[in-house]
Structures are given as structure tokens and as C-alpha cells.
Amino acid sequence: PRPARPPVPLGINLVETNTGRPAGAEEVVEELVAAMRPFLGVADYATLNLNCPNTTSGRSPFDEPGTLGTLLSGYADYDAMPPTFLKVVPTTDPATIEGTLSAMDPFHFVKGIVFGLPTGKPYEGLKTPPQVLDRMPGTLCGRPTRALSDASIQAWYSRMDRGRHVIVGTGGIFNAEDVYRKIRLGATLVQVYTALVYHGPTLVKRINRGLCRLMTRDGLDRIADAVGVDNPHTNPNTNPPANPRSARNPGGAVDA
User: Considering the entire predicted model, what is its pTM?
Assistant: First the structure.
């Protein structure tokens, strides 16, 4: 029998096991499909981490839309599949965005996109010389990722079906202004990690209070009314993007 649901919301994050060797696409798909099974009927939502910087290959098999489609097809027959988010590398490349959106479109359990950490070292504004960074393993998080994350929110929001999918904004969130900026670019939800290390769990309360202040300043009754209002590709006063998937406005709340 399946275990009972816990008394609090449960989210799970699935990622390829770092075995110390590059794994083939078929092996990774099989692992991730099997890993979901124990959480069916238990998890309230799931995240599929499609490109973790800690994997050994340096490249994800899910960079190929066909492989991503194969993975999602593996979940299609599961009962009680939880609402699922795809954790992707932040990017503004139109071909990459369209490839991922096309792969996820047939699967209604996929509810949106979460941005992970960037691959490589596309950082700006650091005092550390680039040649020193290049010798370091892994990647950075926090403020160095903010600009790319914001640009990615803007790019994905302008192309996705906003009636079906939402964006979970990440990257360099330290205060209410950071959250509000990401929401106004197109994020419906946000996730905070690095700032919790430096400011502790009371940060969430301060962010929420700050959001209320910013909403009052701008005359907004609901945070959902701010989603995407500063995105130049979706603002009715600017030219729309080519072939937008949907012109519908999103609804939702912020989970800081």
C-alpha cells in the first residue's frame, strides 16, 4: 500500500544520480521514471531537475527535446501523477525554449518551468578573475545569476501558453524588490535559497510584507495582477512576439 500523505505539503525533486560516470539517455530516463513511482499519491508536486551542474557529463540528455518527450511519456500512464515542474537551465535562446515547450505541451501534468543554475560561468560583476573561476568545479548561485534569470523569465513568458504553464522565478532573490521584479517580468511563483543561508527563515516574512507594500504603492489588490506587466513582449502597448502560444493572463500566488 502507498504511504499516507504527510500533514504538510510535500514537494520532491528528482535528478540523475551522480555515479561518477556519464550515463546514457536511456539509463537516465529509466532511472527518473522509476524514481517517481514511490511518490505517486503522496507528493503534492514534483520537480524534474533536467540539467544539474553536478552531473559528470557536463551535458544533459534532456537538452534534446526528443529525449525529454520520452521521459515525460514514461510518466503518462502513472495514476495520481503530481503537478510537475521542469527545472531547466536559464536561457534566452528561442530554439531551446521552443524545443522544450513543444516537448512538454502534450503532457497536462507538466505545470511549468523552474530555472536552475546556469551551466558554464556566464557571470558578470565579479571581482574574481575569469581564469580563476574557470579552474573551479561546479557553478555559482545567488546574485551572479540574477541578470540571466530575469532575462530568461522574460523570454520564456513571452512564448509559453500562459493559460497552462507558470514560471517559478529563481536567481539572486534577497528582498521583496527582487521578487516583485521577477513577478512583473512573468514569474508566478518564486523560490529562495541562497538568501536563506545569509538571512535566515525570517526572510520570507520580510519579503511578503515588502510585497504587500509594493502592491499597495501600485494599486494592486492581488499579486497575480502584477504577473508579466513589465514584460515588453506581452505588454499590450508593445508589439507581441511572433507566434505566441497564448495571450491569456495567468493567475496564481507567490510562494516565497
Answer: 0.86
CA–CA gap between residue 192 and residue 206 (Å, rounded): 13
pLDDT along the chain (256 residues), means of 10: 83 88 88 96 95 69 94 94 95 96 97 86 73 77 87 96 96 96 97 94 97 97 96 59 45 39
Would you tell me which CATH number, out of the four given (3.20.20.70, 3.10.450.50, 3.40.640.10, 1.10.150.20), belongs to the domain 11-226?
Answer: 3.20.20.70
Residues 74-107: b if buried by 16+ CB within 10 A, e if exposed: ebeeeeebbebbbbbbbbeeeebbebbbebbbeb
What residue ranges do the domains of the chain occupy?
11-226
**Dihedral sign for Cα atoms in the order 237, 239, 240, 241:** negative
Helix (H) or strand (E) holding 12: strand 11-15
